[in-house]
Amino acid sequence: QVQLVESGGGLVQPGDSLTLSCTVYGASLDVYAIGWFRQAPGKEREGVSCIRGSGGNTHYSDSMKSRFTISRDNARNIVYLQMNSLTPEDTATYYCAHRRGRLALSGCWNPSFFTSWGQGTQVTVSS
To answer: What is the mean pLDDT of the chain?
Structure first.
């Protein structure tokens, strides 16, 4: 059974930075894909970033690529999401997810392609 645990969320002010962590149990990070998603109240879940394969290829949504950075520590089985220049529009519950099987780049943005999910960590950006 694959288990994912997010941490690092909290209340920050606009312009602040925050680093989220996703610890993965029961799966390796260097074979399949880990994605970060977020969901705000009343909105659909959207893809934030994705890291795939043995090479650790990273991908970002167009609106976040200049501010967010995804990375992984294979030895510790942790995936990080560094978020900079946060705005109130970034307020959401952030989830990490694992794909059981190979995943094409286009699948990074589709929540239905991921098979295991964490419980989420809340990020609130407000003054």
So the answer is: 93
Are 91 and 38 in contact, with CB atoms under 8 Å apart? no
Q: What is the pairing mode between strands 10-12 and 121-125?
A: parallel
d(CA 87, CA 101): 34
95, burial (CB in 10 Å: exposed 0-12, middle 13-18, buried 19+): buried
The stretch 33-50 carries a mean pLDDT of 96
DSSP 19-84: EEEEEEESS-TTTSEEEEEEE-TTS--EEEEEEETTTTEEEE-TTTTTTEEEEEETTTTEEEEEE-
| Terminal alpha carbon distance of the chain | 40
- Looking at residue 112, its amino acid is S
Instruction: Determine contact, residues 107/92, Cβ cutoff 8 Å.
Output: no
> Quick check: 7 and 18 in contact, CB under 8 A?
no
User: pLDDT tens digits for 86-124?
Assistant: 999 999 999 999 998 888 888 999 999 999 999 999 999
